[in-house]
């Protein structure tokens, strides 16, 4: 998994760091999640009741969720506005601008659970790369539907399974983690789309010029 993160050009802490990506293989994912939710509810962070219900009811074979917390754009903690909305925060000294946001949602930890029978015949690289893709970004689980791009996310939906992270996967992960903090949702979404498109164009150019993917 560390190799997959490095291949996507995402910053990686040194060996021996406190891990924030957890991969669990079990024979009953739904029972495991139900047990964790009862014994360790903090592992599910700020998941809404609707999101938690969807996670519990998902048939698998893969489940994932993230523990996030709001922070200032510079990484400092924020204070919730107890008198207002749960999503309202007090940010001392914030510079308000339409070009950026003073608040960001930081992913503290990612969890991936896989059904043990589903990984039969898969390589460690396929399993690890899939876990990285699901744990580093909140990718949507389409259940039985195929993801619309050539991606490791199709690992359990394709007969022709990818061998690991695809060029699209690596560019998408790099785009998500590239750049500074404090972007608005719309700004970051547009940036990711542009970066992925440039990456695909570069790959097509490489195919035309030297025959290598």
Task: Characterize the structure shown.
This protein is α+β, with helices and mostly antiparallel strands and 213 residues long. It has one domain (2-210). The chain contains 6 helices and 5 strands; from the N terminus they run αβααββββααα. The strands form 2 sheets. The chain has a 3-stranded mixed sheet with strand order 1-5-2, with helices on one face. A hairpin with an 8-residue loop joins strand 3 (79-80) and strand 4 (89-90). The chain is globular.
Secondary structure layout:
Elements: H1 2-7, E1 21-26, H2 29-39, H3 49-57, E2 62-72, E3 79-80, E4 89-90, E5 103-115, H4 124-136, H5 167-177, H6 185-210
Parallel strand pairs: 1-5
Antiparallel strand pairs: 2-5, 3-4
Helix pairs in contact: 5-6
Describe what is shown at a glance:
By secondary structure, the chain is an alpha+beta fold. It has 6 helices and 5 strands; from the N terminus they run αβααββββααα. The strands form 2 sheets. It has a 3-stranded mixed beta sheet, covered by helices on one side. A two-stranded antiparallel ribbon has the order 3-4.
Q: How would you classify the helix and strand content by structural class? A: alpha+beta
Could you say how many structural domains there are in total? 1
The overall pLDDT average reads 79
Span of the ends, CA to CA:
23 Å
| Strand order in space, largest sheet | 1-5-2
Give the strand content: 15-25%
Given as residue ranges, the uncertain stretches (5+ residues, pLDDT < 50) are: 207-213
Shape by Cα distribution: globular
Return the string of H and E elements: HEHHEEEEHHH
| Rg measurement, Å | 19 Å
Helix content: 25-40%
Instruction: Give the number of DSSP strands.
Output: 5
